Amino acid sequence: MKPIKWQHNLMVLWVGNFITGMGFSMTMPFLPLYIATMGHFTTAQLNLISGFAFAITFLMKAIVSPYWGKLADQYGRKLMCLRASLGMTITITACGLAPNILILIVLRAIQGCFSGYINNANAIMAASVPTEKSGKALGTLATGNVVGTLLGPLAGGALASVFGYRSSFFVTGAMMLVVFLMTLLFVHEVFEPISAKKMAPTKQVFKQLANPRLIWGLFITTLVIQAANMSITPIISLLIKSMLHNQGSVAMTSGWISSLPGIITLIASPILGIVSDHIGPEKVLVGGLAAAIICFIPMSFAQNVWQLGLWRTLLGFSDAAMLPAIQVLMTRYVPQSAFGRIFSYNQSFQAMGSVIGPMLGSVVANAVGYSGVFVMTAVLEGVNMVLLAPVMWGMRKETHAQANHAFEK
What we know:
Layout: H1 6-25, H2 31-36, H3 43-75, H4 77-95, H5 101-113, H6 117-128, H7 134-163, H8 165-186, H9 202-208, H10 212-230, H11 236-244, H12 250-279, H13 281-299, H14 305-333, H15 339-368, H16 370-408
Helix pairs in contact: 1-6, 1-7, 1-8, 3-4, 3-5, 3-15, 4-5, 4-6, 4-8, 6-7, 6-15, 7-8, 7-12, 7-14, 10-14, 10-15, 10-16, 11-12, 12-13, 12-14, 13-14, 13-16, 15-16
Keywords: Cell membrane, Membrane, Transmembrane, Transmembrane helix, Transport
Main location: membrane
Subcellular location: Cell membrane
């Protein structure tokens, strides 16, 4: 059998992740404005409905991802990428045709149900890349989603301002159709379908993992990272407004401040992926958590946008360290036959972070002010590091002990 050229898969899947990231973020900036055109709502009603319409996609993603993961392990991850991209093509396009808010919310819920391109792209890449290059490959792949999510709001806002709100949905739907065709024609996966009777149940898979505590720790870490990144979403424009004192563009400044970590993550992820291949993903992950704590605490004391922007920029290095390290660790400690299910569970926890983060941010900001959001986030990261670090150090000692025992023999 001819071996798969993982570099070829990486290039195509990077573009797929990029467009998928844009697909989820292009409509975010003007979603409340789009909803406002569908009826007469008070400000409180509009805030509530917009928040629900935003969260329902991620909530449904969290619920259904394990089911798609099971099918991925049974029928192949490429098929799941095709299912996700075609499903998003239809649902996002239909959102642009929604006649009322109820239909829009239902469509966004269905969109969440059909998600799963990125985690299955990670699974395809993890299965095809040599172990010694997994950090670099998965780190590079992670930048596709980051860049797409970063550029999506800018592109969506530009389209909406020129051609109207609905145009962004149609363009995004067309882009997802391109992803479907690219994946169909150019992504190669060697996979033999497994019958439902022969496939091990998910509970048994978790019992057979070499280090199940580590995998569950990585799930929690993914949730915390996403919640930390999203906690600032509800308050960022209000925080920037208070710092600018009505001098300067709040919208533009908020956009740049929000984007800074993503820009750095784009640059640093492949580099830190290579570092992970040399010193071990465990060290890189713990270092990333420590760096996040160091960045979030000073943010709570920031007095102007320059100080906030500096620490947000440095936070990008933390994300660049943690996200690929999690993928590499799961690749190394999970059997290939369970990649689909484990990566899908990880996506579920990430989606839960997208729901929990903004909710926590809003509650804390209302209770103790904007600075409290950063303190809360630093505490979350700190608790996560305290719980995860001993598991990884113990695992690392066990690995070294096994290697020494084998050498002595």
